[in-house]
């Protein structure tokens, strides 16, 4: 279970402080899939950064399985991120000089897993990239690159997958295929999913849809209202 408790996030700028997140409460039971929609600039990415422990709230606190992140040492927080969290970005963020297999295996290898490459190879085969293992990112389509990125994010079996517009750079059909793979792998692993997306068809495939508006989080009201 992850909780955000009266979380505020404020940035200091030359024009003065700006409030990015305002009094956000959220409880994510293990295995739940939550979509977060909302206009550009409303604070969705900032929310993911807080959940990943990459940003600290300026008010309130984040809890991960009963432990407050602000009570963890820097090393403990880094370990928690490495072991428990996977992230998929809109623009893939693969390393250009590594092939698909090496890209996807990198976090596992850093974590010292002995079976990293065989585990990742199996996952890449599962997402239909068995024939692309030695291809570099520039030789892969956007959809293929995102599939590599999804394998990279899930290979270490994190308890939480954070996805920031994972289909945002893909055409509709490729996006739908990548989304299906992401949801399928997530379901098999039972990973908690927080998915930021503008795509309401994708959002509605999650258990719950929340909307972010000017730094406030709300349960989405029905489309038909
Ligand atoms: N380090 C920072 N310093 C100051 N302002 C920031 C910083 N990071 C983000 N912001 C501002 O915080 C607000 C929320 O940004 P965020 O990226 O969370 O929005 P978003 O909902 O994810 O938007 P999008 O859908 O366009 O990705 C924006 O107005 C952004 O300009």
Automatic annotation (TrEMBL):
Question: Domain of life, per the record?
Answer: Bacteria
Q: Where is the signal peptide?
A: none
Q: Which UniProt keywords apply?
A: Antibiotic resistance, ATP-binding, Cell membrane, Membrane, Nucleotide-binding, Transmembrane, Transmembrane helix, Transport
Q: Cite the InterPro entries for this sequence.
A: AAA+_ATPase, ABC_transporter-like_ATP-bd, ABC_transporter-like_CS, ABC_transpr_LolD-like, MacB-like_ATP-bd, P-loop_NTPase
One MF annotation (Gene Ontology) recorded for this entry: ATP binding
The GO biological-process annotations, alphabetized, read as: response to antibiotic
Mention any one GO cellular component term assigned to this protein in its UniProt record: membrane protein complex
**Where would I find the ABC transporter domain in this sequence?**
4-225
Q: Which Pfam families match?
A: ABC_tran
Record-stated family: Belongs to the ABC transporter superfamily. Macrolide exporter (TC 3.A.1.122) family.
The name this protein goes by in its record: ABC transporter ATP-binding protein
What organism is the protein native to? Answer: Orrella marina
């Amino acid at each position: 279970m992850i909780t955000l408790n009266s979380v505020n996030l404020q940035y200091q700028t030359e024009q003065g402080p700006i409030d990015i997140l305002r009094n956000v409460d959220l409880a994510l039971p293990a295995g739940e899939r939550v979509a977060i929609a909302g206009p550009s600039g409303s604070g969705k990415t900032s929310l993911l950064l807080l959940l990943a422990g990459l940003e600290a709230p300026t008010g309130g606190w984040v809890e991960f399985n009963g432990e407050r992140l602000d009570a963890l040492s820097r090393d403990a927080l880094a370990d928690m991120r490495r072991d428990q969290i996977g992230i998929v970005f809109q623009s893939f963020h693969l390393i250009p000089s590594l092939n698909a297999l090496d890209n996807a295996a990198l976090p596992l290898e850093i974590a010292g897993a002995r079976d990293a490459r065989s585990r990742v190879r199996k996952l890449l085969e599962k997402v239909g990239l068995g024939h692309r293992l030695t291809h570099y990112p520039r030789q892969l389509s956007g959809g293929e690159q995102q599939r590599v990125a999804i394998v990279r994010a899930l290979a270490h079996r994190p308890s939480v997958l954070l996805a920031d517009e994972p289909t945002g750079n893909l055409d509709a059909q490729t996006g739908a295929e990548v989304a299906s793979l992401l949801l399928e792998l997530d379901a098999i692993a039972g990973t908690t999913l927080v998915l930021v997306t503008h795509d309401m068809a994708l959002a509605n495939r999650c258990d719950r849809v929340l909307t972010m508006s000017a730094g406030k989080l709300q349960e989405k009201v029905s489309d038909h209202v």
